[in-house]
Structure formats: C-alpha cells, structure tokens
Fold this sequence. Notes:
Elements (H helix, E strand, L loop, with lengths): L1 E4 L7 H19 L4 H15 L8 E7 L4 E7 L4 E5 L2 E5 L15 E6 L5 E5 L1 H4 L10 H9 L5 H15 L10 E8 L6 E4 L1
Antiparallel strand pairs: 1-2, 2-3, 3-6, 4-5, 4-7, 7-8, 8-9
Helix pairs in contact: 1-2
Amino acid sequence: FVAILSDGMGHGSKAAQESNATVKILEKLLESGIDRDVAVRMVNSVLLLRSPEETFATVDLVLIDLYHPRAEFIKIGAAATYVKRGREVQNIKSTSLPAGILDTVDVERTVLDLEPGDLVVMVTDGVVDSKPAEPGKDDWIIRALRQVEVVGPESLGEYLLNLARINQDGVMKDDMTVVVLQLMEKEIGRQLVAKG
C-alpha cells in the first residue's frame, strides 16, 4: 500500500499544480515498477527541468507492507509524519530540501514495524506551522494525538484540520492537508489492510 503527499512551493493554485504534478509523476513511475529511489530522483529531475522559475515540492511517501506489517517512510523536505499507537506517538522528521531545488536529492528513509490499529498521520507544513508561537513547531500535534481517542481515520483527520484552523483563528495562511491511514486486521485469514 502506498500513500503520497506533496506540498508545492507557496500556496494557492500554483502550489497545487506543483504538488499534483509531483504526485502524478511519482504514482506513474511506482506503478510501472521503477525502484522508489530511482522514481524519487526522476521526479526531482522533472521538477528541475519543468520551468526556469522556482519549481519545487516536498515528497512524503509511505510504503506499507501489509503482509509483514512494516512501513517505509521516504521524505524529501516534507513535514513530520506521525505514527499513533494508543497514547504513544512517534514522529518521523525530514531535514532535507524539497525536490526540484538541487541537482541531486537527499532521500531520507525510516522503517518502522506496525501493528493492527496503528495510525499513520501525514500533514503538510501549513498544519504544523499553524501555531507559530509554539516553541517546538509540532508539539501541539503530538499533544493532540496523545490525548484524542480515535474513532477512525477520517474523524482524526478532520479533528487535526479543525485544530489547525482554530490555531489561526479560522484564517488559513497556508494550504493545509492531513492524510490519516489506519492499519486494520481483516476477519478472514488475519490479513491486514490500510484504511484511510
């Protein structure tokens, strides 16, 4: 199972175009069977060649092996991703620059074992940065994830977006996206599925 989140430079329609192009290109490359590292490097090259003006986007890629519940997180300039297991929250951060800035891209990879019920929460920087006075930018998200009782991935996504809007008094200063996946165990044959 693969989930891709991309955030283009700036906000509005131009940023949306960059992030949509990044996701579509990456999706097609992965579907064709190209190795994920090669696919990410190709996206970087495409973004470098697309326009003489600044064209770049973050890449947040989660590949989940449903047979041996494990997630591989590949991040290029992306905001933190969170894994929630009960009240425990782990964050996976990126220190690299977004794709399309440099000739070579620094692929940051983290692998974690998952369990049924675990939630994977991917967000854009508009959500993380919605509470600018916070000393640790994403501390508010970690606190919220630890405190909230989960009713499902959709509800958790809406909850985090609503908190981010409240943080900015309802006036969003940047695009905000939240993707929540939950690993569920199927009744038949102990098969795992990702729901989001």
